[in-house]
Amino acid sequence: MYKKIILGLLVSxxxxxxxxxxxxxxxxxxxxxxxxxxxxAGLFYMQKASLPEFNMNETRKxxxxxxxxxxxxxxxxxxxxxxxxxxxxxxxxxENQRSYILLGRCYSRIGKPIHAIGAxxxxxxxxxxxxxxxxxxxxxxxxxxxxxxxxxxxxxxAFEEAIKAGKKVTYRFSYKxxxxxxxxxxxxx
Length: 189
Known about the structure:
By secondary structure, the protein is mainly α. It contains 10 helices and no strands.
């Protein structure tokens, strides 16, 4: 299942690797993790991300790998990737926004919602510079972190902002999850 998710993630951002190559990287990283630990597996991923076949900038590679690790419940490796992404220069103005969203998701995954809100707030700090779908994601995860803290009014506001951002996306996009969470908060009163 994880291979399909990671394959979809990598293909969706324009990599040129074939599925056999991705499967081999995933398998090898799993072996390295068992033998040498998470740090060695993370380094292996980062080395593979620098190959020309990935056909994307360094920051995007790191964020994709970090997202893949978060999906696999390896927040430690995701943190390594996102920290490196935040200090890697990029011409793409959405890269920092993506980095802070991933950082916030990492903090949420390890049970630190206050830290998550701080990181995610950086992703929504300059809405004119961000892509609406990224603003949606950041606001959605801010709302989820507020729910974890039982701060329902703040969560409601965050989900409303997520819906506003989602409506500005010009391609087919669903902001249904934010609407569902907003409805749950309204119904709990």
